[in-house]
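User: Need the bound-state model for guanosine-5'-diphosphate:
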Amino acid sequence: MPRTADIQTDPKDVADRIRSGDRRALARALTFVESRRADHRAWAEALLTEIMPDTGGAYRVGLSGVPGVGKSTLIEALGDHVTEAGHRIAVLAVDPSSKRSGGSILGDKTRMETLSRNPAAFIRPSPAGETLGGVARRTRESMLLCEAAGFDIILVETVGVGQSETAVAAMTDIFVLMLLPAGGDELQGMKKGIVELADLILVNKADGDLKDQARRTAADYHGALRLLGKPKHRSEVGVMACSAATRDGVAEIWSRAQSFMDEAKDAGALTQRRAEQAKSWLWEEASAALIDALRADDAVNGIVQDVEDAVTTGTLPASVGAKRLVDALLRR
Ligand code: GDP
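Assistant: Bound-state model below.
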């Protein structure tokens, strides 16, 4: 819980502490970003405005895969690798299931034990949120704070459920999808959508008995993706087999990811990708802000019950009902 005393601190001072690498200041600021209370939000927004010039300098990496595919094992391995190379990595999670399950899978303390003790790493479990949209909005802001704190790699992790991959791909520079060696001829994730989002596909657990199978799966994906053709505005999707457990391929994963982002930067594609992301973020925030304003407005609240009843009983189309609410707000 954010502490009331913190809100009396000038956001400018907190911004200075975050820039100087004060991890406690960063951790506390994140609790404000995640809070839904209006006064906390206002304070967080003042802080975010303050630190905006210090953001944008990190490699933003998205990582997704079903539970058990080896995400946390890979993050540990990758975290060691990049911090040994002198980077500082922050790991954030978008986990819309955390609230329902009563405890975040991604926030489980036993995960990433080694990395959590690494002074060049910062791990933040997923904030509890009611909606994926809410969680994703806060994760974006957390990413900015971590960048201001000097982390030059931000890894945003999500479990492969629902729309969370889309949300993570929409806030990162590269989206990495982890898959398991396929048993049969069914290629997982080929369902339109997820694979399309991927910039790099990793077939994990390429070790022991699964090694050959993982390599075959990687080759199958490679072939299937070639058939699908090159996605618009994107470099070709890379596919490789790896073993997070033995760390076989981990150095190559990072060098591929880094080249992908560096090439995109040189070609101007990164700037374009981030600009598009920022624009859609703006409109998401605008709709969320509008909904908040509707819910807080007296005139709207005066008619909301009638409008809801009319819509639920099927006498009023939802689109017309929505316009009535907005009209009530605008005629204040
Ligand atoms: P997550 O749920 O995606 O974070 O998956 P975990 O990293 O927790 O891994 C799930 C299980 O798979 C654990 O028992 C890991 O030890 C195991 N695992 C992870 N990566 C590998 C790998 O590369 N090879 C093998 N054989 N097992 C792995």
